Structures are given as C-alpha cells and as structure tokens.
Amino acid sequence: MITQIIGFDSKLKCDFEPSDIKQILNSTKYFSESSPKFNPLSSLIYDKEYCNKTSDKLIVIKSNIKLIEFISDSKKILEELKSDSTEDSLQLDNKFHSIKDILEKYCNEDISLILTFGSCEINSLRIDFTLNMVEVPDLIQIVSGTCKLVDEYFFESIKTDLENLIKKRSLSEHMTYSVISSTDVYFNPIFEEKEILGISWNNAGYKGINQNILEEISRNDVAIFENDHIIVTTQSVLMVLLGVAEENYLNYVTERICAVELFWRQTLLLKRIHFELDEFISELNGKIESDDLGKAITDIQEIQLTIQSELEVYRNTIISVTHSYSMLFNTLNKVLKLSTHYNFIQEKIETIKSIYESLNDGRRNKLNDKRNKLMENIQQLVILIGLVTIIVTILINVIFYNLFSVNQKLSIVFIIIGILILGFFFIFGDND
Fold first, then answer.
1. CA pair distance 410, 255, nearest whole angstrom
2. From CA 297, how far away is CA 317, in angstroms rounded?
C-alpha cells in the first residue's frame, strides 16, 4: 500500500459543531456520502495516562473514490495549469500519461480518502493506494507518480471540498509525505539495502548509490518488532512488516501509518510556529520603534500563552508515546530534524521574553521617572503656594491696607491667584 499524507493550511482551525458537519458534507463532491467520526487519540500509540487526561479528539471523515476518477480529476487540473506552466505542454502530457499507465497497471480500483482535523489547527488528508505485487523500479515510479499527482493536481481538485468544510476560507500552503507499507516482500530487507534506499528516497538510480551514503542512510533503519523494518527518510517512510497475520494486517499497518501521520502533523506545527515567531519579532520591532510599548507588551503576553499551548502537542507526542512506537518516533524526530526546529522556537521564545522584560523595565522606569517628577513638581507647588500666601498676606494686610478699597484688594488677590494657576499648569504641564 502507498499512502500520501497531505498536511494543509495549518493556520486554519476546523471549529465544527457535530450537528453541522453532516450538512456541510452534503455540499461536497468527495465526502457527500461520508459520516464524520470523532476519534480520541489512539491508546496504542499514546500511553493510557495521556489519553485519559487529554481532551483532544480527531475529527475523521472517510470516503472512497475510483482510480479512474482520481486520474480524471487530476487530468482536469493539469489542463488548467498547462497554460501557466513554463514546461512544454507535450512534455507535461507525456509525464502524466506515463504515471497514469503505471497506476492503472499496478493500483487497485478503489482509493481511500481520510480527512483528519486535529487540535492546534493541524489538518491532513490521507490518500491510500492499494497495489498489486510490483518490482522495485516500478514501485519507485508509483511512489513518485502518486505523490506528484496528489501534490500538484489532485489537491487542487479537492480544495473546494476542504474550503467548504472550513467555512470557505482560502487554502494555500500544503506539503505531502509518502508512506510505503508491505507484508509481501519482493526483496530481502536485511541484505538488499540499495533497494530499500531506492524506495525510501524515491530514487530510480538506487543501484548506483554510493556505499558511504548507503551506510549513512541505513543507520536510520528502525526495527519496532523482530520482523518489522521501518526506514525513515525526509521524503517518505518504508515499512516492511513481516509475519503479520492476515486478519490483523489492516489494524497493524493502519496504526503505524497513523503514527507517522501524527508525527507529520507535528512537523508542520513546528515549522508554522517557527515562521510565525519570525514574523512576530519583525512586527514587534516596528511597534517598539513607534513607541507603542503597551500594545507590544500585550501582544507578547498573548503569543507566549498561544505558543506554549500549541507546543504541548509536540511535547506530548515525544514523552507520551507507548514503548512499541518510541523507536519510530525517535527516528522520525531525528531524520526530520524536529528537535532542531523545537530548539529554534525556544530560542525565539527566549528572545521575545528578553524583549518583554526589557520593555517592562523600560515602562517601569518611565513610570518611576514620571512619579519622581510629579513629586518634585508637588514640592515646587507647595513652596510656591506658601510664598504666594505670605506675599498676599503682607500686601493686603500691611502695605496696601490703607491704599486700596476692598474691591481693588480683591482684584489684586484674583490676579495673584491667576498667576498661581499659570504656575501650576507650567509645572505640571512639564510633567506630561
């Protein structure tokens, strides 16, 4: 079986109400006959303690299409895109028909579509192709061909359904990752390393691969159980599952594909957070330059809470995985360099934290300066009031007592009070 996993538009959150989902599905092309299912996290992949504590649920929507429909819809998108392509139209047609011929030769008629919406706005579409027995070179072509059709053409066709499901918001970014799984082995996974490397790297020239490269890649092989060989690369996962009873095959393989899919979602999550923090820091610098410190501090507080919440998904994927999946997740983490992404995110969070502390200190110092200035002004005002009081008393009661009438004396008092008020505004106006 070949599985193509598409992670799409991780910024979009699917906030369905259960009663609304079926009604929305009725307006879709590929999922109109589907019924949504709310799945808790798998207790086979995650330990029971985490599954019992978490409220996370995955919204899963399944459907089936025919191979001929998949090819036809991909072809329609190809025709629409050809006019904008720099490649020769005949060359594009030849590539497409080459892929089409090999899919029709080796793929079964039924194709499964599994759409999953999860927590932290990470969404994915899984497309399963069931194959007949194939040789290594053809398998590489099938993996590459299905990935190309899914990534470049079919996803454009299914976007309308996805946009209906997420309330007609536009989809843009998506990434595709391949999983190849088999129990009917046509090569020896222990000795035929070049074949393994060729399949997992989608490299049709696997026979000429340098031995040093072969040894370096082979160090990423994972044996989950005695007869399982799972090879992880940046492009795909190859799972050779031997000795699995026919009645257990579907669940056994499906759980491992789900594990890879869960981890692939975390890949997109970390990349999205990484780039969002870059953009946030850039915008933050603009706010600081414009002296909008209050808004900058509020924004920092909000993003710190959001990021820490979203990172819980990645952390739990690492620490709460069951023993039988720990080697697979460790290898996925290593090969896809997720620890590096995570560390970069932590560095950016620390940078934002330093900016926050600096802004807070600056705002605190500014408030202290204002407070100190206010106290100085109050002292000056008290002194001024005291002096004016003494002067007024002397003028009225001693010097001008016999020279002016009562009204004239009152006028002099009001003039002095006016001067006092002007002094008040001058002193406190300077404080602003």
1. 95
2. 31
Pick from 153, 162, 122: nearest CA to 28: 162
Report CA 350 to chain centroid distance, whole Å. Answer: 19
Give Cα 19 distance to the centre of its chain. Answer: 27
Question: Dihedrals φ, ψ of 224, to 5°?
Answer: -70, -50
C-alpha span between 106 and 127 (Å, rounded): 16
DSSP string of 364-414? HHHHHHHHHHHHHHHHHHHHHHHHHHHHHHHIIIIISTTTS-HHHHHHHHH
Among candidates 115, 98, 6, which has minimal Cα distance to 60?
A: 115
Residues 6+ apart with CB under 8 A from 188: none
Dihedral of the CA atoms 269, 274, 277, 283 (nearest 10)?
-110
β partners of residue 180: 2, 238
Nearest Cα neighbor of 100 from 75, 80, 136 is: 75
Strands 236-241 and 174-182 turn out to be parallel
What is the Cα–Cα distance from 107 to 91, expressed in whole angstroms?
24
Structural domain boundaries of the chain?
Answer: 2-182, 270-366, 369-431
Helix (H) or strand (E) holding 299: helix 293-319
Q: Which two tokens stand for residue 422?
A: 């002007």
pTM for the model: 0.76
Q: What is the mean pLDDT of each run of 10 residues along the chain (432 residues)?
A: 86 66 83 83 82 74 91 86 68 83 88 81 85 80 88 87 73 84 69 77 78 73 74 86 76 87 85 84 70 71 80 80 85 86 86 76 63 67 68 62 56 64 59 52
The helix or strand, by DSSP H or E, that contains position 415, with its residue range, turns out to be: helix 406-431
- For the beta carbon of residue 134, count every other beta carbon within 10 angstroms: 19
Residue 280: its H or E element: helix 246-289
Between the alpha carbon of residue 388 and those of residues 383, 395, 400, 408, 415, the distances in Å are: 9, 10, 16, 18, 11
